[in-house]
Amino acid sequence: MTPPSLEVSGLAFAYPDGHQALFGVDLTVGRGERVALLGPNGAGKTTLVLHLNGILGGGVGSVRVAGLPVDRKHLAEIRRRVGIVFQDPDDQLFMPTVREDVAFGPAAAGLRGAELRARVAEALSRVGMEAFADRPPHHLSFGQRRRVAVATVLAMEPEILVLDEPSSNLDPASRRELADILRSLDVTVLMVTHDLPYALELCPRAVVLSDGVITADGTTQELLCDEELMRAHRLELPFGFDPRSVVVPGR
């Protein structure tokens, strides 16, 4: 039986200053699912995400990716399988050209020659940026840089794509283009966002993390329609947006 993409069991974590960020998180995400991770600032979302590829560790409980435990022995493979796209693409783009940025991870993992070139070309094609391969990243628009940041992760052929506020600072056209790209990807997606309409559009399932624990897990539309839940966890819909009126297409 194929294991789920992600299994988090009883994960608790405190920072060195004593701040307890997670209090026993249980979360399972199946292969190919797109799940929105919602919650107020300070809920523990970033702490949870940083445990998924071993950036943080040392807490209580366990995290498994595609059946592999996130531990020192498996760290290189875990970091290949869990790709994190940070909120600011400039945190990920540092090479002279787009092509070199996308090639950096696979090259560091040992890919060379024609295989590396094919991997880079495929990743850029998946985000519609193949025509910009030789451009310096800092000459691109913010939306284009975000798409390149996604390509740098896709080039590693991840099991899970983790996106931190993917729609932030995007104009409407770039927002739409990124949504189309994310829908087309055949990977598991965990999307951390405060953009609740974007979560509804892209993620059939959502979980709410609040005060270090999962407080709700269900269809995104059901959770966004639960006014008491939304108020309790400081989740705000845009003025005039009614999730009940949105016809969520089959995925």
UniProtKB/TrEMBL annotation:
GO molecular function per UniProt: ATP binding; ATP hydrolysis activity; ATPase-coupled transmembrane transporter activity
Start and end residues of each ABC transporter domain: 6-236
Main location: membrane
Entry's Gene Ontology BP terms: cobalt ion transport
Entry's localization field: Cell membrane
Membrane-spanning intervals of the chain: none
UniProt-listed Gene3D superfamilies: P-loop containing nucleotide triphosphate hydrolases
GO cellular component: ATP-binding cassette (ABC) transporter complex
Keyword set includes Ribosomal protein: no
Alphabetical UniProt keywords: ATP-binding, Cell membrane, Membrane, Nucleotide-binding, Translocase, Transport
Bilayer topology annotation: Peripheral membrane protein
Domain of life: Bacteria
Matching PANTHER family: ENERGY-COUPLING FACTOR TRANSPORTER ATP-BINDING PROTEIN ECFA1, HEAVY METAL TRANSPORTER
Family membership: Belongs to the ABC transporter superfamily.
Stated name of the protein: ABC transporter ATP-binding protein
